[in-house]
């Protein structure tokens, strides 16, 4: 029997409905409207699209959204000055500096300049430290989305064997730490595999929950998956183009995940699709962190 599809679109929709109620309550009872400031340097089309989607979702939830679009030749000094202004703006609860930044700007320097209590991306060393010791404030958005998908799909985590393929600071490391914690939605035994792991399949075949963020298409095949496992595919790889269903004269990207979806869905019990799996969760968790930041004022 083919695997149950874990729809990130449906889970994100449910969480946004919850957030909309929280935002309304904050406004009615405390006069607080959560505010997110986005900073975009340059005109990268993917970044513009992503920031636009974040701002639209903010408005849909009744939140404030402030976008700061700067030219690509903006100096590091000017960008840091803007970050400082946002740190001191009481109407701004969360700050997002969209990556990548132009090469002449030190990304780490900019990210570390953000007030940790407004770092809704969860990348500041203070928030990474909080995550490690089990006192998380703002978990990184994609790992937080992954954890929500696992929990809301009804997949037990306590005592589960979890294998994470990939050790990036954005996905692999944080999700492994989050699932190790002694709390609900975690309490798992976690193994992290990477490019120097010998015989990755030996590890992946043990996994009750397999999280794949390898960075290339079809890195995990059906033979590498334990029957009945829950498989979370984090990867998004552009492998070609096809005519758009809405406009046959327009070409759209063909996307594949890091998992061989068609084969693995015949082995796994539950699996996320690409697109429509982890992707829709990232923006949603960013806004959840922003609402959480607003509540720090209570």
In CATH, the architecture of the largest domain is: 3-Layer(aba) Sandwich
Radius of gyration, taken over Cα atoms and rounded to an integer in Å: 20 Å
Level-1 CATH class name of the largest domain: Alpha Beta
Tally of alpha and pi helices: 10
Major sheet size, sense and barrel closure: 6 strands, parallel
Number of domains: 2
Distance from N terminus to C terminus (CA atoms, Å) equals 49 Å
Share in helix: 25-40%
Order of helices and strands: EHEHEHEHHHEHEHEEEEHEH
Q: pLDDT below 50 for ≥5 consecutive residues: which ranges? A: none
Order of neighbouring strands in the sheet with most strands: 1-11-8-7-5-6
SSE blueprint and pairings:
Elements: E1 4-5, H1 8-30, E2 35-41, H2 45-60, E3 64-70, H3 76-87, E4 94-97, H4 107-113, H5 125-132, H6 141-152, E5 161-165, H7 172-180, E6 189-193, H8 200-204, E7 209-212, E8 230-233, E9 237-243, E10 251-256, H9 261-264, E11 270-271, H10 279-295
Parallel strand pairs: 1-11, 2-3, 2-4, 5-6, 5-7, 7-8, 8-11
Antiparallel strand pairs: 9-10
Helix pairs in contact: 1-10, 6-7, 6-10
Descriptive tags:
298 residues, alpha/beta, Rossmann fold, 6-stranded parallel β-sheet, 3-stranded parallel β-sheet, 38% helix
Protein described:
It is a single chain. The protein is α/β, with parallel strands linked by helices and 298 residues long. The protein folds into 2 domains: 88 residues, Rossmann fold, CATH 3.40.50.10860; 141 residues, NAD(P)-binding Rossmann-like Domain (Rossmann fold), CATH 3.40.50. Helix content is 38%, strand content 18%. Strands 1-11-8-7-5-6 form a 6-stranded parallel sheet. The radius of gyration is 20 Å and the shape is globular.
